[in-house]
Amino acid sequence: MWCDKRIDIVYLGWPKAGSTWFHRFCEESPDLLVSSAKDTYLFSKSAGVSVESIFPDVDSSFDDTKLVEINHDYVFSLEALSKISAHNPNAKVVVFFREPISWLISEYKYVTATGAVSCSFEEFLATYDYLRGRLSISEHIENVHKIFGKNNTFCYPVEHLREQPNDFAEKLCSFCDISNDFLNQYDFSTSVNSAITPRLKFLPVLINFARKVRDFTGLYRLYGLVKRGSLRKLMYSNSSSKLNYDWARSKVLLSDLNITDEINKIENILDFELTSWKK
Length: 279
Prior knowledge:
Number of helices: 14
Mean pLDDT: 82
Radius of gyration: 19 Å
Number of domains: 1
Low-confidence stretches: none
Structural class: alpha/beta
CATH topology: Rossmann fold
Number of strands: 7
């Protein structure tokens, strides 16, 4: 019989910053339970999604298991953050973020591969205003700290994960208050972020249509399962050609973003240096 459990740990964001790695980390740990669909939209959609619908088999035997929910857009929504806090005031939250320029390139490759946009990189920077909101990293981190507290927040750049994966995983185990024994067999060679390339030219259009059907019908879990399943491997390859773009024009388009100032703000908030970002 299903028991009334709350979500214990929530991954808040960013996209293209290691959420898939975190999902696999949770699947490998015997102390954590996460949906196979990865993104479940529990706190951002009103489509009948509940803890019970995500974890239907949870009963009293799971008392010592921590439930994990992942959505890499929560960090951008004060409403979603408030819902999480109301659901569980003691929730631990995980935030991975990424160096701004590499994030922009990765985001562009992903949204074009999945049909969300169809334009040049320069047009992408000039047209899609949401990018600037997502690059206000310090502001979003401060919002998270205000709602959940600094001690209940695991907030690191994905570059730390790439540079010291073992140490990063150890810190994450400690933060989640779980055993680190499973790390002895953990495969740290798996790529943290891998770009995808459609195997067929019409796939981006098809995926974009499926996304619209998902939003209209509320079939988020089904969409997530397909997205994470073997069908994805048939549709996409984990490879990406080098992005060709006009860097001079791109710098002009990004001139309103003071990335150096943003880096300084993040360092002050988190009290560590983002050395690799300054190279």
